[in-house]
Amino acid sequence: MSFTLYDKLWNLHEVSRREDGTYLLYIDRHLIHEVTSPQAFEGLKLAGRKPWRISANIATPDHNVPTTDRDKGIAGINDEVSKLQVVTLDDNCKEHEILQFDIHDKRQGIVHVVGPEQGLTLPGMTIVCGDSHTSTHGALATLSMGIGTSEVEHVLATQCLKTSKLKNMRVNISGELQEGVTPKDVTLAVIGRIGTAGGTGYAIEYAGSVIENMSIEGRMTVCNMAIEAGARAGLVAYDQVTEAYIKDRPFTPTGEQWLVAKEQWQDLVSDSEAQFDKEIEIDGSFIAPQVTWGTSPEMVSDIDGVIPEPNSESIRHALSYMNLEPGKKIKDIKLDQIFIGSCTNSRIEDLREAAKVLEGKKVSESIKRAIVVPGSGLVSQQAIDEGLDKIFIDSGFEWRAPGCSMCLAMNPDQLGDGEHCASTSNRNFEGRQGYGGRTHLVSPITAAASAVEGHFVDVREYLS
After folding, report:
1. How many other CB atoms sit within 10 Å of the CB of residue 71?
2. What is each CA distance from 123 to 225, 269, 421, in whole angstroms?
3. Strand stretches in 293-404, DSSP E
4. What's the pTM?
5. What number is the average pLDDT over the span 158-170?
6. Which of 8, 84, 333, 402 has the most beta carbons within 10 angstroms of its beta carbon?
7. Is residue 124 part of a domain?
């Protein structure tokens, strides 16, 4: 019998099927942060329970941590609710002896950056976190899903998740990407093609030559935004690129265990005869740099496109909020702020590519603020060792400490009312980056080039 990668991962972890048609799925790794865990730990306490398997859990604060004045630690968090959440995470991890990379730890960072770079994300795992972008980890041949706070409590108590089985979708991206077209452009193009509801009820496996030729960091960017396509999970099959990425990381198996694990991981691919419920074919050679113009990730255009006519109420409302007129060229949209960071695009590869664009150039005087926020302390240190921080600072960017930052504006990094931002994050909802803020999702190199010009530019022409 032939199976998809998703089905193989599911079969390895299915505990039981319940009478209501739902399943219990065993969870190998539980990632924890400060926003969705306090109520879960409180629920355990009230019920007189303790975490079932301590070693399966790993925690780090990321949503609320400040990206400036980090030498002050928790004292540097001005918002009292944010401070309480970070302190509560500290207390809960100490009480239950859960490993945490706290605000003072050089390994602290965005949970979806920290997991893979530490080798805590391993092929064949089921991974959950109280954050929708847990789909990121699927890039390493895992089944990874975001869960709610009540589910966080359930996983802590039982090491199992009550869930329903998904259908299988495969998105085949063939051909070869043009210079200046990045994994972020690929995932935005997929969403533009199938819509934000196109993947509802599915796990999406990304395949084809474009994916095969991507680095793991690029694959993580693609899987990160599977959730924006409506899917619960995104996956990429195991290959030599996966093996090379995870080898010799802190929590990766070693010695005989590494050899056994490698042999088992070879099967983490969809069988050649496996049947998918839906297949999407995209020629990657035709993908251009992408820019969102509206208030949903599916409201996206090629860089040389124009704002569309408002042929629906949702588009009319989006254009009103974004203060954009039909027919306006994407390249003519003027920008106020630039944000390079988030669990989508804050890894070392992202920073390197953006720095190449910025080297020897200056951010336009029309840009009010441009910030770059590394995804973890280790990413930050590597960037500093390579001199990338100096390139950003010399160009006019602010170099910040790790965290989620302006992606969701739960700390002071926010847009002003009416400001347009070229953002490497994953969501462009109304107010996502601050009250009245207008978010345009782009790749790191498009953000960097646009920062220099003060408006969107086709980075393909910019690079040449």
Report:
1. 9
2. 19, 11, 36
3. 300-302, 337-340, 369-372, 398-399
4. 0.97
5. 98
6. 402
7. yes
